[in-house]
Amino acid sequence: MSGEHHTIELPSTLAPSPHNGTAPHGLSTIDEPAATLLGELTLPAERASVPRARRFSRSVGTASGVGHIADDAEVLVSELVTNAVRHATVPGSALCLKMLRTGTRLRIEVHDQSAAVPRQRPVDLMEETGRGWFLVAVMAERHGTDHTPSGKSVWCEVRAWPRDEHSGH
Predict the structure, then answer these.
(1) Nearest residue to 80 via CA among 28, 143, 11, 9
(2) What pLDDT, in 10s, does the model give residues 70-116?
(3) Of the candidates 144, 55, 60, 146, which has an alpha carbon nearest to the alpha carbon of residue 98?
(4) Exposed, middle or buried: residue 166 (CB in 10 Å: 0-12, 13-18, 19+)?
(5) How far apart, in whole angstroms, are the C-alpha atoms of residue 56 and residue 76?
(6) CA-CA distance, 51 to 54, in Å (whole number)?
(7) What does the alpha-carbon distance between residue 56 and residue 61 come to, in Å, rounded to a whole number?
């Protein structure tokens, strides 16, 4: 690989589907259960917040009985928080990490004060950065961005719990 640049394009099959059970702005559709907040952490938009967010993720995962996906959840939290810190409009401004249960999925949200949304771009394997959104797209079952009154929420979901036998799904 000496001197060569390798680029990975995110296949369109990995992009979020418009028929994924989420209405515009991330609102649940009628056949999707309401979200239950498992944990919430407010952090400053600074690099030291990333390891703190990872520890919080592992703690919430263990307490919620989803230790089997703790590593994946930790990577996803790390990528979302790192992106929010890197692109914060005001360094040190407040970020809010939320972890929720939505039916059989763990939903990870990072709220910040910027309206700028993550954009898909080619991944250069020779670069040290720039793979976060690609990792989220590959690892998560669903992912997206919702505008909020104070900025935006960047989120992803991974299957974490077995299907509810009583829900009929």
Answers:
(1) 143
(2) 999 999 999 999 999 998 888 889 999 999 999 999 999 999 999 88
(3) 60
(4) exposed
(5) 12
(6) 5
(7) 8
In degrees, rounded to 5, the angle at the alpha carbon of residue 113 between the alpha carbons of residues 149 and 26 is 50
Alpha-carbon dihedral sign for residues 74, 77, 79, 81: negative
Which pair of tokens denotes residue 17? Answer: 């589907």
**Positions in the chain short of pLDDT 50:** 1-25, 164-169
CA distance 100 to 119: 24
Residue 42 token pair: 């407010």
Other CB atoms within 10 Å distance of the CB of residue 143 = 23
